[in-house]
């Protein structure tokens, strides 16, 4: 059966969901997106995602067409209409459709466009959570405002395609010799003395919502967390490595560019953090 999408005020079959070819998201990637996980029919850590949405649209002077409260209502209705138990809700806001293709912001009353749809995915029982994933490294060729969750994702598309062609589960992007982040995830390592390390938030990376929650959960359990950049060499010498994202929760990394990390098996820290995060997701879903 065709799933249901939301397009600018209407719930429609996904196959009928359409926006104008003059939509600025289509023409200029002039838009912002978010992806929230759904577990047992409930949104996971959604307030954090919507707070980041508000920050991102503010950074590009884009007005949300609905309140955050109303957006949450729409998300929940989509989940109900699609009978979604486990998966993702995708949300995209663009500057809308103008009368032509002109770079400056539209003049006059052009309303922002809001589109949402869902997809099924059993994040909790993913096989890769037990086996771990391989990652490859690629140059980070993105713009300088990666803290904004822009729909301009060509660099990530190329990185993820390179990973797919190499049979890897993710690509880690490198800049000035250091790992910035994954194509759609945050990169972590665990040092030999059990310090959890991830790059500090800045314009160089997206402030990951799952990253934030996992770090808070780790600190609540008196685990040591350090925010700083790290190299591939340090990652290969680490006890463990892992990634976090809304679409994967916590995933162990067992190899980088074909070289094993931590003996080539998921480590106890990543495994435990995944368990803790799933417990958090189930307890706090709305």
TrEMBL record:
UniProt key word Transport: no
A Pfam match: Aminotran_4
Keywords: Amino-acid biosynthesis, Branched-chain amino acid biosynthesis
Catalyzed reactions per annotation: L-valine + 2-oxoglutarate = 3-methyl-2-oxobutanoate + L-glutamate; L-isoleucine + 2-oxoglutarate = (S)-3-methyl-2-oxopentanoate + L-glutamate; L-leucine + 2-oxoglutarate = 4-methyl-2-oxopentanoate + L-glutamate
Function: Acts on leucine, isoleucine and valine.
Family the entry assigns: Belongs to the class-IV pyridoxal-phosphate-dependent aminotransferase family.
Protein known as: Probable branched-chain-amino-acid aminotransferase
Organism: Bradyrhizobium iriomotense
């Amino acid at each position: 059966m065709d799933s249901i999408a939301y397009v600018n005020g209407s719930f429609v079959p996904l196959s009928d969901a359409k926006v104008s070819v003059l939509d600025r998201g289509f023409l200029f990637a002039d838009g912002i997106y978010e992806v929230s996980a759904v577990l047992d029919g409930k949104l996971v850590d959604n307030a954090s995602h919507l707070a980041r949405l508000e920050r991102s649209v503010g950074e590009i002077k884009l007005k949300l067409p609905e309140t955050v409260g109303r957006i949450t209502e729409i998300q929940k209705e989509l989940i109900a209409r699609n009978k979604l138990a486990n998966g993702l809700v995708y949300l995209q806001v663009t500057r809308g459709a103008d009368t032509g293709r002109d770079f400056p912001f539209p003049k006059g009353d052009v309303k922002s466009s809001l589109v949402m749809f869902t997809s099924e995915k059993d994040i909790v029982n993913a096989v890769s959570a037990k086996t771990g994933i391989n990652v490859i490294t690629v140059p980070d060729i993105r713009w300088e405002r990666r803290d904004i969750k822009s729909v301009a994702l060509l660099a990530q598309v190329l990185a993820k395609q390179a990973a797919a062609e190499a049979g890897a589960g993710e690509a880690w992007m490198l800049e000035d010799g250091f790992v910035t982040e994954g194509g759609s995830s945050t990169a972590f390592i665990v040092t030999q003395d059990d310090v959890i390390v991830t790059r500090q938030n800045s314009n160089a990376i997206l402030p990951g919502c799952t990253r934030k929650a996992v770090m808070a959960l780790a600190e609540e359990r008196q685990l040591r967390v350090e925010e700083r950049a790290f190299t591939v060499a340090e990652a290969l010498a680490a006890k463990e490595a892992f990634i976090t994202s809304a679409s994967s929760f916590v995933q162990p990394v067992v190899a980088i560019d074909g070289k094993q990390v931590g003996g080539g098996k998921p480590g106890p820290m990543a495994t435990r953090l995944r368990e803790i995060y799933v417990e958090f997701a189930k307890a706090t879903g709305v």
